[in-house]
Amino acid sequence: MPAANIEFSSELNSFIEEWGKKPGGLIMMLHRIQGEFGYIPREAAEKLSLMVGLPLAKIYGVVTFYHFFKTSKPGKHRIAICLGTACYLKGAQDLVDESRSILGIAGEDVTDDGLFSIDEVRCLGCCGLAPVLQVGDEVYGKVTKEQLPDIIAKYRNL
Amino acid sequence: MAKKNFMLVCGGTGCESSKSDEIYRTLIKEAELQGVKDDVQVVKTGCFGFCEKGPIVKVLPSESFYVEVKPEDAKEIIAEQVIKGREVKRLLYKKSQQTADNIKVQDIEFYQKQFRIVLRNCGVINPENIEEYIARDGYVALEKALFEMSPQQIIDVMKASGLRGRGGAGFPTGVKWETAAKVNSEVKYVVCNADEGDPGAYMDRSTIEGDPHSVLEAMIIAGKAIGAHNGYIYIRAEYPLAIDRLKVAIAQAKERGLMGVDILGSGFDFDVEIRLGAGAFVCGEETALLQSIEGNRGMPIPKPPFPAIKGLWGKPTIINNVETLANIPVILTKGAEWFAAIGTDKSKGTKVFALTGKINNSGLIEVPMGTTLREIIFDIGGGIKGGKKFKGVQTGGPSGGIIVEKDLDTPISYESLIALGSMMGSGGMIVMDEDDCVVDVSKFYMAFCVDESCGKCAPCRIGTNQMHALLDKISKGNGVEADLDSLERIGKAMTKASLCMLGGSAANPTLATIRHFRDEYMEHIVDHKCRAGKCKSLVVYEIIPAKCIGCGLCARKCPVPCITGEKKQPHVIDTARCIKCGECFKACKFGAVTKR
């Protein structure tokens, strides 16, 4: 197996060391791996499998069950558009469609330059600000379609 | 030296995303710059609830309630409030644009009908400081439970209080505890369900962000009552702020001997560990949640045996929702009778709702059970945005149903909402107006359930897909009347035969809308018309030649473009190529573009 092709940071290694022994620690370890790589690379899953002695099938079973875990690399700037009910009622779907059309991507694709990807997310929990989108850690509230080109442009040149 | 002014800055997620943290830091900086840092204490609190008007800053003792504050306002607030001792009038909450008189917090209609038990400390204390929680009777209930009460006495109080699960199902908390307490087992677990997956609901997140210790205290009390020494908090990974505050709270509680080994010298041990969810709505279902804590795919398992008998790793486990837990310290301190006096006959205490959608005062509210929906929407919520017509209110999210105008005077209780074809749910309350289409909303909720169905049982896996396909067909104008019967038939089958409540309630939004708005469904089917204009396939944009002056604005706005016409001559939309984005409709200043 090509598991040796991926390097884990020492913090990640010690985290796996600790949590690998705890019952039911798999999801916590996957969170940590995604925190380090932005997604769960296949090599990382294979390495984890060897480190903690869990079958790869079991790990993949869990990874693919939960929406939070990604198996492909997201864009440098992840645009998370809230599709919770409050945001949906206030036109969030239009924001999704418009952002995709501006960036020329579909679904969870990444733009060719690797800069952007769009995630439809369930409720960011700022329903008072609906519709809401988040780029990285920055939250934008009461967003209109007209603001999208400017928001995206801001990150293009970062 | 006594502090003259206390400035409470909302640090809930909503306000944080509109820069409340910067406001907090700027207030402190300005106080220093203006040389009055000893005369003011700036505190970052949990959610005030009035999210619509955020970010919010409240100043004590003057009770000044500032809304929609910006970081650049900090300088003026410090200069006026602290140095000159007067309010910054322009930032004060005003009832309406017309009234010049500013009003005090207690007079704000948003707060008047509220009664706060769960949210008692939210917007009042600094959630990252255990001293402030203790100063407001925090951990008094724990002391009482550890030194003055037997496990059975604690359970008796819980039963007498009438507290029922706030996660949605409404199972009596005391009965759940008693079941687990009676099982003879060395190892038992207390689990806090903070996997708040209902889109449009954020009660639990705000409670943890604003008052994390109330949840921890309750978990330890529960541990004593059932004989458990370990607790897990299962919380959404999407709530980073709440997770951080919990970590801080756990560390502080341990440092003060309120958690860990030999709590307060009582000989009782209890430890809490945080486990992160990973974005699966079904994990709100308790057996699925336990599977997830065990590191598995979050798929529910048949009950019985109930988790209280055989739960986490096969051991007796009680699972309580955040809001349920936050009630418990108060019940023990003030007594079961006090609590049981609030609310209705069978639903005691209060309920927290996240009031959102097409409403003026969107936010987090807590009202006594038995309050009517009309009071919530029109008194607290301030009515519908933009003077539009009320259409319905969805409670219980994707598991609930729509409640319409004629039922708005129903006092809220677990039973009354079920009788209306909805349910209490965890507390999402989403208001819809005439611009919302019931077919579109039902399709939205069903798409959610298709996505979130774990796929283990056939009624849910297949049923949600089939219902979604039918709703999609209707929304595109291809439905037939028999589709409505099919929807009802599949829905009933799912309700009866699904393994867990996800499938068991997934049909509710659709069934409720068919019941109340059959005519609107028929319009989609027979007339191929969507009166709200939300089902894009059914909308046709046209230009009325008599009203069009030929300014060309619509043609310039059209992204296709499919609008043509000579200058100063009526324009025409090529409906075959129109993508129905509605830009022309919005752009026209003369009402010449129609939508039908």
CATH architecture label name of the largest domain in chain A: 3-Layer(aba) Sandwich
How many domains of chain B?
5
CATH domain class name of the largest domain in chain A: Alpha Beta
**Arrangement of strands in the largest sheet of chain B:** 10-9-13-11-12
Concise account of the structure shown:
Chain A has seven helices and four strands, in the order ααααβααβββα. By secondary structure, chain A is of the alpha+beta class.
Structure description:
The complex is a heterodimer of chains A (158) and B (596). With 158 residues, chain A is α+β, with helices and mostly antiparallel strands. Chain A folds into two domains: 2-65; 77-156, Glutaredoxin (3-Layer(aba) Sandwich). Chain A has seven helices and four strands; from the N terminus they run H-H-H-H-E-H-H-E-E-E-H. Chain A has helices at residues 10-19, 26-37, 42-52, 56-65, 85-89, 92-103, 148-156, and strands at 77-82, 116-121, 133-135, 138-140. Chain A has a four-stranded mixed beta sheet, covered by helices on one side. In chain A, helix 1 (10-19) packs antiparallel against helix 2 (26-37). Chain B has 596 residues and is α/β, with parallel strands linked by helices. Chain B has five domains: 5-108, Glutaredoxin (3-Layer(aba) Sandwich); 130-340, NADH-ubiquinone oxidoreductase 51kDa subunit (Rossmann fold, 3-Layer(aba) Sandwich); 350-433, Ubiquitin-like (UB roll) (Roll); 438-527, de novo design (two linked rop proteins); 540-595, Alpha-Beta Plaits, CATH 3.30.70.20. Helix content of chain B is 39%, strand content 13%. Chain B is built from 24 helices and 17 strands. In chain B, the strands form five sheets. A five-stranded mixed beta sheet of chain B has the order 10-9-13-11-12. In chain B, strands 2-1-3-4 form a four-stranded mixed beta sheet, with helices on one face. A four-stranded parallel beta sheet of chain B has the order 7-6-5-8, sandwiched between helices. In chain B, helix 10 crosses helix 13 (322-334) and helix 19 packs across helix 21 (508-516). The longest helix of chain B has 18 residues, at 458-475. Chain B starts with a strand and ends with a strand. Chains A and B meet through helix 2, helix 4 and helix 5 of A and helix 1, strand 9, strand 13 and helix 17 of B.
